[in-house]
Amino acid sequence: MTPDFTLLFLFIFVLTLTARLWLTLRHIRFVAAHRAAVPADFAERISLPAHQKAADYTVDRSRMAIFSTLIDAGLLLALTLGGGLAWLHDFWSGRLGELPYGLAMIFSLLAISGLIDLPLSLYRQFVIEARHGFNRMTLGLFFADLVKQTLLGIAIGAPVILAVLWLMGAMGTFWWLYVWLFWCLFNLLILFIYPTWIAPLFNKFSPLADGEMKTRIEALLVRCGFRSSGLFVMDGSKRSSHGNAYFTGFGNNKRIVFFDTLLARLTPSEVEAVLAHELGHFRKKHIVKRIIFMFAASLGLLWLLGQLINAAWFYNGLGVPAENTALGLILFFLVIPVFTFPLSPLNSYFSRRHEFEADAYAAEHADASELTRALVKLYQDNASTLTPDPLHSLFYDSHPPAAQRIARLQMATR
């Protein structure tokens, strides 16, 4: 091993792990400390039992997150300095050619990770979600989804991985640029085909029925100048009682999708306000900005990998004596989250700013008080805590805290 890089990796690893665990423990303590009383701004709208349910749900999920974090950290060490990747390399390298070897290595890691995560996923779904009244999934549906996801991952992932590995080996010094171009095109293709070809494999999508709700929504779309390929209701209730709405796809393939659980809970005017918020993301070009950011970040990461892939110290420092494109790709994406964790607040900041902008857009094109009522119902129905730890929220929350978000909407109604 290369002692200097090994020590640097271990130092950053311990620092990141400690920070993640500390933030989660802070969150648990903060939520528990505010469990006894509903925040004053919500006292007239959310009952104490509902507030306490949200606190208990948040604490349970956070405790599970601590366990998952420790499992992931242990797996990372086992695969790198513990010799796991070196063992897999020794097992596959003498049996397969270069491209099949790379595919086997990556799928082996995905299989190991999936098997480790399986009992954790079962516990989340059938213990935590069930304990708090959210689970509607059966074991049969859970494993049917798992089989579909696995087969879909193999059908799509295998040719993509082979293409990436081939480009890495065949395109010379600037392979990372060719891989980036391929990755961008692949992601745009997935965005286009997902609504029509992938999502229906897991859920049923029915056209929104005629009535007041559809009339209001169509009028909103005209006011906002938004054209879509249809309004659909998704049978989210067969898996969970959580509610949501979103639009997906791009170009002429955009769809607006409502969870049936959301429509069952909100009034037509509240649904209109929620959709106005989602349209705000489109009109403010948040989706385009996120795609551009993702592409720019992936270009930077692939360039960095291009600088490391022939560096012996990078492999040796992480416990892998061999050097090849597949191992370089695997090692890089295994360890990069350890080094990029301090950037999490930056990503969360821009996401929360987009949410505020979408709320402001909704207040201009719908009734802000209706959006406020809808959000309060969604916070209650989804058991979202009203009292997150501020520092934990800074790192992890893509949406602003409830109190800040609703305070801004109330100002818009004055």
What does this structure look like?
By secondary structure, the chain is mainly alpha-helical. It has helices at residues 3-33, 48-79, 84-93, 98-131, 139-170, 175-198, 212-224, 260-265, 268-283, 286-308, 312-317, 325-340, 344-365, 368-381, 390-396, 402-412, and strands at 205-207, 231-234, 245-248, 255-259. The chain has a domain at 1-135 and 305-414. It has a four-stranded mixed beta sheet with strand order 1-2-4-3. Helix 4 runs parallel beside helix 12 (325-340) and helix 7 (212-224) packs parallel to helix 9 (268-283). It is globular. The mean pLDDT is 92.
Keywords:
mainly alpha, four-stranded mixed beta sheet
Detail the topology: elements first, then pairings.
Elements: H1 3-33, H2 48-79, H3 84-93, H4 98-131, H5 139-170, H6 175-198, E1 205-207, H7 212-224, E2 231-234, E3 245-248, E4 255-259, H8 260-265, H9 268-283, H10 286-308, H11 312-317, H12 325-340, H13 344-365, H14 368-381, H15 390-396, H16 402-412
Parallel strand pairs: 2-4
Antiparallel strand pairs: 1-2, 3-4
What is the first-to-last residue Cα distance? Answer: 65 Å
Tell me the structural class. mainly alpha
Q: Runs with pLDDT <50, length 5+?
A: none
Mean pLDDT: 92
Shape: globular
Largest sheet: 4 strands, mixed
Number of strand segments? 4
Strand arrangement within the widest β-sheet reads 1-2-4-3
The rounded Rg comes to 23 Å
Helix residue percentage: over 70%
Annotation field: number of helices: 16
Order of helices and strands: HHHHHHEHEEEHHHHHHHHH
Q: What fraction of residues sit in β-strands?
A: under 5%
